[in-house]
Request: fold
Amino acid sequence: MTQSTQKTNLAHALSLAAQCLADVESGRSLSAVLYKLEGPNRPAALALVSHALRFWGLGRTWRSMALSKRASSAALNSLVGLSLLMLDVAMQKGEGSAEAASVPSHQSPLSSDAPVYPVHTIVDQSVRAARLLISAPFAPRLINAILRRFQRERAIFVEAVTNDPVARYGYPVWWQKRVQQAYPAQWEAILSVSRHKPALVLRVNTRVTTLQTVIEAMQAQNLEAQALTEVALSVRNTGAVESLPGYDAGWWSVQDLSAQRAAQILAPFDGAKVLDACAAPGGKSSHLLELAQIELTAVDADARRLAMTKQNLSRLQLMDPDCVHLIHADVRKSQSWRANGPYDLILADVPCTASGIVRRHPDIPWLRRESDLKQTTHLQREILDALWSSLKPGGRLLLATCSVFEEEGEQQAQAFLSRFADAKRQPAPGQILPMAAGEQHATGFDGFFYALFEKGI
Reply:
């Protein structure tokens, strides 16, 4: 690939990334706008977006310093923040000059997967990206002026954000305060997790293969694979997940170690009637089916995501119509799912703010509002109340959320116990705090909450 081709590709990648960032700032999730990242520039653009979102508090703050007023183009505004972050990476890495390398680094550490380009390339290609985004001649001149200024005055930009919590930690202030109040000894470590790209963790489908078989297949393609548990492994140096050995054969599913705890805690047994009440896209449903010969009813209110559940179960060779029933329904409003009950086991992986999986979805802090907590906790309560009457006496219900907010975890569990006198709490992990790789664990894991209840006989 020639240098000019590389530059042209980077300009296109920057423009695509800026458009996605603008969509996130407008309130759309990154997963909903990834369709824009098509073609050969997708990997570079995705890397740029991911890095920018992990440091978007800093990027937004520097953008405000650089722009006296916002441009009319949302994508151009996002390009300013993105380009400043990328230029900062280059200068911290010393990819420009000795003078650039000597400028002190800001307090926020670089993520290990930050894309690195030379300083002159960042400036040149950001200017080209501005031309791709907007035809007005002021756009490239604006980007060039801002980046040249940052090169000269980076120390001033760094000093200006030293005591800015949003720039430093990358979360809205309300989010930081809640985490700090709930976890006074661990709050900084919890927030720092978002700066680290998670490892790819696979759960082996032991119905069709073994952990050792999967590891050997990965290593045969020069992929770094490491066993984590009896059924889980991490894989590094990967490309598209679908291209990995064993994908089409249903050898494995992508699932974080924290999420893998759900089926293990619920402990399905042969012959059990099991309800997965918020099943899509099927990761926990498939794990339940892998652990025992059960009759599974998987329900979800989102028809599109329920279709994904069917696709995933089919790929894993688990979609047996005699023992798997997929139902499109809202368990609060529909009675259709009750016909297959009463159930021995119920998994309630209820909707939440997803505050525990920020390292995997760095757009989440910029999409959530503090008022969302009231809505999600109310929704969770309604779902749990609807489910309890369909659980057999002696049966178990597992409350699961991928959250670190107490309202969606321990407070929800305590409130559930206060409403149902026949509910007895059983041993479960409770709050699992998110952890970045390298702190105490080789791959890190997401934040989750688990509470297990048994129904009195």
Confidence is low (pLDDT under 50) at residues 1-8, 95-109.
